[in-house]
């Protein structure tokens, strides 16, 4: 290298030697050295990933022999928890999780592959949730309705489905909750997704007259709409992606959409404003539905569906049962039974796993007070957004 002045500070008449890219020779050497070190680490990472893949292959072979599931959420919860402890906050936790989600996604592929159904088309929040949980190495099948997602899993066309259960500001997704009443599918895992809605259009914002979106998102952005577009016509769509398709098709009529910004890229819209949801930490809890029971992870939640007799004090007895066993109730909601008018089912989420004390004993006792008790699933209550 020419003109190197190692260790000397440049005087006014001998300016620091600069290379074409604006770096001194020392900086260029340091950069090259660091990048060589990174190359070396990357080579080691790939070798380690190859070794990991061999072990995953072995796990897959053992599972195939007794027909046990490829997706083992409790093992993933334990693994990600251990990695977070090893990381000790050096890398951002969400980055490490995202990296490992893709490594695990690769494992699914190596073990024979997974097919996941979600409410499509591509670009919906359900699509994002499915990608977050299962990564890019699984086959993701868009469905037209939540019922279709349940049916796909029920008929074995998909091993798992991803459906929204509740939103932090809009509450329950009642259409999904009602499907659990007649379905035999289980909740195997949950996905918390931070929902950051965007305003998207192919037209300038002052031309907007119509706002398309899924009713859940129209609810999550209610105050924003009243402030910014009080006179806009609000049109509900079956998904946020459908809203963006219509915003593109009906641009000349002043159409725009609210939803997942990925749709803007997919359908040629501009993102006119980000984060239009009323609640800053707007989060939707999605369920992974399937046919398997998830083992305890150490920090679980159990979702129950109960029906009780129309007698004074029955609901109080149910609540009392949880209280006596020291179980924290996270959520309780009633929905029409849809069998008899003015008869209800209750959706209850409680802390703990159905196979572990004290929830196990609570459920045994609870059965005496309920005309129906269905355990929708016990699964890790992680709070990753
Ligand atoms: C490898 C396994 O299968 C899947 C992949 C995992 C991984 O890559 O670490 C973990 C759990 C399973 O969902 C396993 O069950 O251990």
UniProtKB/TrEMBL annotation:
Which CDD domains is this protein grouped with? ACT_CM-PDT (cd04905), PBP2_PDT_1 (cd13630)
Occurrences of domain ACT (ranges): 303-380
Catalysed reaction(s) here are: chorismate = prephenate; prephenate + H(+) = 3-phenylpyruvate + CO2 + H2O
**Boundaries of each Chorismate mutase domain copy?**
25-115
Sorted alphabetically, which keywords does the UniProt record give?
A: Amino-acid biosynthesis, Aromatic amino acid biosynthesis, Cytoplasm, Isomerase, Lyase, Multifunctional enzyme, Phenylalanine biosynthesis
Q: What does this protein do?
A: Catalyzes the Claisen rearrangement of chorismate to prephenate and the decarboxylation/dehydration of prephenate to phenylpyruvate.
Protein name, as recorded: Bifunctional chorismate mutase/prephenate dehydratase
Protein source organism:
Akkermansia biwaensis
Its taxonomic path starts at:
Bacteria, Pseudomonadati, Verrucomicrobiota, Verrucomicrobiia, Verrucomicrobiales
